[in-house]
Amino acid sequence: MRQSTEDSSICSAVDLLVPGVGELCGGSL
Fold it and tell me: Could you tell me if 15 and 22 are in contact, meaning their C-beta atoms sit under 8 angstroms apart?
């Protein structure tokens, strides 16, 4: 999995909208 500023922005946006998905995204990163 590659890390980029776009991925971080999307992950942050998703974290605000869906805390559950944000935790999964943050855990994978």
Answer: yes
At residue 24, φ and ψ (nearest 5 deg) are: -65, -45
How many C-alpha atoms does 13 have within 13 Å on its Cβ side?
6
- This model's pTM is above 0.85: no
Q: Which residues contact 18 (CB under 8 A, 6 or more apart)?
A: none
Please tell me which residue, 25 or 7, carries the higher pLDDT value: 7
Tokens 């909208």, residue?
A: 17
The pLDDT of 2-15, averaged and rounded, is 71
